[in-house]
Amino acid sequence: MTHNVRDIAERKPNFLALSPLIVFLVMYLATSLILNDFYKVPITIAFLTSSAYAVAITHKLTLNQRITRFSRGAGNKNIMLMVWIFVLAGAFAQSAKDMNGVQQAVNIALRFLPSDFLLPGMFITSCFISLSVGTSVGTIAALMPVAVGVAEQSGVDVELMAGVIVGGAYFGDNLSFISDTTVIATKSQGCMMKDKFRENIKIVTPAAIAAAIIYFFIGRGLHYNLPMQDIQLVRVLPYVVVLVSALLGINVLIVLSVGIVCAGFIGMITGCYDIFGWFSSMGNGILAMSELIIVTLLAGGMLELIRYNGGMDFLVEKLSSKVSAKRGAEFSIAFLVFFADICTANNTVAIITVSQAVAKIARKFGINPKRSASLLDTFSCFAQGIIPYGAQMLLAAGLCKIAPSIIIPYLFYPFLMGVCALLSITFQWPKSK
């Protein structure tokens, strides 16, 4: 297949290339905040509008070439991986729910977790699982269906419970040795994973402790007296299989596939549905993820055009040219990866995009590689944790059947992680040799 020269040539840094993101933020976030209604403008329409605008401002290409470039971004391997995860997560969540697995898992959680410790207990569980599996998406896919059931049975707002799980998911995404962000950040900066972990843990531990304390005080007045119900352990087996498989480091697609088969088998032997009922459950679960899949594809295409038109190059050029001291260099690294994540909606891609520029800034100003790797990872997770159109937030909102934006006020850990990271730069702590 041949490509037009203009299609593969490097584009000059260009501020206008960032304008589709501005169109989206104004149309979705600003309008929703002004009207105090996050359902007024569907997120699919906001992305459709900003995507069409991105295609329109892409010059020096024919319309077919613009659409091809957009489609290339939508079909990026990372985007398609997310789509597969969403499809399987929807099928697993619904088939497990229809065989009464969620209710049984909820009964266990509510029986053994004291009401005062329900929220911090769920947060710590999410932190532990994400640290073990190294993926925030996998953690949310595994835990969120149970968390929603716990919220409904205990009287906790679903958006609050979603914030608890999503926040904990980013703890492991940022720190786990098997997380994509950790691997890429350390490799690109040339440091050992253990050194980056030691640097990173000192920054985010206060944030995790503070978030757990906040959830404890929010949940102190929580009291639920539910009738004691018989626990049928066989019905929670699909969740156990998913969690254990994930903890063993098995690929998340295989984990969810095994969970689906396990849920279907148990559902049929317990009489919850026959094989066609299982197929129907899976189909309904996948359909429930349709909006999430559409948004993911539109975002991937739009963000590819932003990158192609020089939006990311503009950011790198402007930020790296303004640096004059070590503290300023670290703030530039932080803002660079933060904004890259806002533009790409993928913390792994954001790190890849700016890693070379960050390495140059770090070498120029004598920043330890473990420090630059830690800043890369932390601020990418901070940004990814608070944007309403990231894969993790969209997945959580899809499983909860709520708008992603209403989860944001309850994301205490990602916000606290960002604050701690900014304070770390301001006071140059922890000290590095």
C-alpha termini separation: 52 Å
- Number of separate strands: 0
What does the overall shape look like?
globular
Biggest sheet descriptor: none
Q: Give the SSE order as H and E letters.
A: HHHHHHHHHHHHHHHHHHHHH
Q: Give me the number of helical elements.
A: 21
Proportion of residues in helical segments: over 70%
How big is the Rg?
A: 22 Å
Seen as an oligomer or otherwise, the chain set is single chain
SSE layout:
Blueprint: H1 5-8, H2 19-35, H3 43-56, H4 63-74, H5 77-98, H6 101-112, H7 118-133, H8 136-154, H9 158-175, H10 180-189, H11 193-219, H12 237-247, H13 252-269, H14 275-288, H15 290-308, H16 311-321, H17 326-344, H18 347-364, H19 369-386, H20 391-400, H21 412-426
Note down, in words, how this protein is organized.
By secondary structure, the protein is mainly α. It is 75% helix and 0% strand.
List keywords for this structure.
single chain, 433 residues, mainly alpha, 21 helices, globular, disordered N terminus
Short description:
The chain has 21 helices and no strands. It has helices at 5-8, 19-35, 43-56, 63-74, 77-98, 101-112, 118-133, 136-154, 158-175, 180-189, 193-219, 237-247, 252-269, 275-288, 290-308, 311-321, 326-344, 347-364, 369-386, 391-400, 412-426.
